[in-house]
Amino acid sequence: MNCPEFLPKYLTRFLMPISGDFNPILKLRATPCRCKCRLRCRFISCILFSLFGFCMVSQVWFVPVSQLHAQEPPGQSKFLDERAVRVTEDALKWLAERQNEDGTFGTARTSPHQVGVTALCGMAFLASGSVPEAGPYAEHVSKSVQFMLSCSQPNGYLVNTELKTHGPMYGHGFGTMFLAEVYGMSNRDDLRLKLKKAVNLIIATQNSEGGWRYNPVPDDADISVTVCQVMALRAARNAGIAVPKEVIDRAVVYLKKCQNPDGGFRYRIFDAAESKVARSAAALVALYTAGITDDPALQRGFEYLHAKRELNDDRAYRYYAAYYSAQAYWHSGGEDWSNGFPVLRDRLLDSVNTDHWEDTAMGNEYATAMALIALQIPNNLVPIFER
Hints:
Elements: H1 6-10, E1 16-17, H2 38-56, E2 60-61, H3 82-97, H4 115-127, H5 138-150, H6 168-185, H7 192-204, H8 223-238, H9 245-257, H10 277-289, H11 296-307, H12 318-332, H13 334-351, H14 364-375
Antiparallel strand pairs: 1-2
Helix pairs in contact: 3-14, 4-5, 4-6, 4-14, 6-7, 6-8, 7-8, 8-9, 8-10, 10-11, 10-12, 12-13, 12-14
């Protein structure tokens, strides 16, 4: 055989654990096969995968075959017509042009150098198929990663200490999720230590109710910040970073306690029972992310979303709502997806300002990144957004 190392270096591109650390049989991280027998390696790898599958099916998850290369979106579907593809391509170019030299996004008017916004912009490029090593936006992803790493504090907190922001744990959650996705989709082993520290900080700051709040202390909690941390933990777990099951279980309890009789979700457990689309869609996504796929809470939640599909009650958070609603419909699939996503897609396309989206409060880069991620959900290229 021309490639004696194909097992650890090639088969690991197909296999990775769904929880805990790396499978003991596959300790090495995925790296591409660089020999001339690529097709033979892929054939043999597939055979071995089938043999391993019977005894390991409950412990692995699938990673895109092109883990270390720019990924190609699937063939155009009825959910991504020519208009959607064109607008998405133009918006990605616009966003790339807005990146600052230090890897951040935004101007003095739109609060630049934010960890959260930079992470979301990086996720928008990942959703298009680019990775740090390849793709039209590889450089932009890499620069975002470098900024994120520069913000890593000794305790793992991802925060720009030179910038005062409202709710920095939002940024930490989005930043951790972004680093986890990059770590799982590339050969950036230098990310592991800081990613683990970021995850450990989230674990350590979960409060007694099971949630998280604006700052890294286990005091109060709200549903929005909690959803952000749950997604970060799942992304890290997908990438091979250990996350205690009880942390996720407590978060699920908190999320369910926030659900109102109408199926929507309130902001905090002890707040008035006021439901909103943005946070309700976010809560549904977090439940799916936590592994809940068949539960009355999901059914009631989607009944609420269907009744409020126009998103008119969340105008101030319309991009946040679009970001999470697209994911919620995608996870649910079936009629929820086929009926819900086209409405959301068309609303985003109708509201685009030539090549970007605008938000006077959070900034155009934030709005464009959120809209781009929502529109690219059907690409199914980023593990944390996969069904």
